[in-house]
DNA sequence: GTTTCATGTCATGTTTTCTAACATATAACT
DNA sequence: AGTTATATGTTAGAAAACATGACATGAAAC
């Protein structure tokens, strides 16, 4: 699903569209930017360009505000989330290398022991 | 997958973005509109607004042009596709009513035969 | 060598967005 | 009560993007 991620993170929406999609005013959207809650791209002509992910994030911000959080609180939550996500990715890459280890082990067994009864293409292995 | 369809058909992109995404000039994009190959929405201020589906369609148009088709040909192909799709939908709804028929039959069996050995909440039934 | 088609280019007007500044309501604090 | 901070409204002026319409043009078709 890499193409989907790309689509969601492509900065293609002008602020007017984002206003409609989020029901926020331009003032609010820009203010959240000064508070470093979002960081839209810029066009050649310096216009802000938002991605679908940005829209989601703005909707999140709205929710948190409704719950009474302030800018600092929301900023903190977002940083938390980011850390969490990085952690997950790290875990995933670790898992992957575990699999790699298994594969390497498998190869070594094959080479060391020769084929004693097991077919090299045995379904149990990979 | 209804939300996804909605997302893909939401008119949110200004022509400048579409130009970058398709590598077409504004002139070309507007011309294809006069040829009724696309029909973007309009904002309150009369700006054209395109959906992701529109972008896909424009990329298709590009391909067909590269293959030597002209506007009329492409228009024809699109109409063809639309018919085809409508046909598919009709077929699907027919299939659905077949299922309905089965369900009705099932209900009737229950009512007619009474509960001879089958529990009314038997997992096999619905 | 005209026509037609698809596109380029230019002019002019309108809409959208930008930044920056000043204003204000609400909540928090002393 | 008076002050302060926060989040947002409002306004002004400039720049960018977009709309429409007209005229221009290269390539293909006839």
TrEMBL record, chains A, B:
The keyword Ribonucleoprotein does not apply. Residues 12-80 form the HTH merR-type domain. GO terms for molecular function: DNA binding; DNA-binding transcription factor activity. Pfam families: MerR_1. Keywords: DNA-binding, Repressor, Transcription, Transcription regulation. InterPro entries: DNA-bd_dom_put_sf, MerR-type_HTH_dom, MerR_fam. The keyword Transcription regulation applies. This is Transcriptional regulator GlnR. It comes from Paucilactobacillus suebicus DSM 5007 = KCTC 3549. The lineage of its organism: Bacteria, Bacillati, Bacillota, Bacilli, Lactobacillales.
């Amino acid at each position: 699903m890499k193409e989907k991620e790309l689509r969601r993170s492509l900065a293609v929406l002008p602020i007017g569209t984002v206003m409609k999609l989020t029901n926020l005013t331009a003032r609010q959207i820009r203010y959240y930017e000064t508070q470093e809650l979002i960081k839209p791209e810029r066009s050649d002509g310096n216009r802000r360009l938002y991605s679908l992910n940005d829209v989601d994030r703005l909707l999140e911000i709205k929710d948190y505000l409704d719950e009474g959080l302030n800018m600092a609180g929301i900023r903190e939550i977002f940083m938390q989330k980011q850390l969490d996500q990085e952690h997950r990715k790290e875990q995933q890459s670790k898992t992957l290398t575990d699999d790699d280890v298994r594969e390497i082990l498998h190869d070594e067994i094959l080479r060391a022991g020769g084929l004693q009864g097991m077919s090299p293409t045995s379904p149990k292995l990979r």
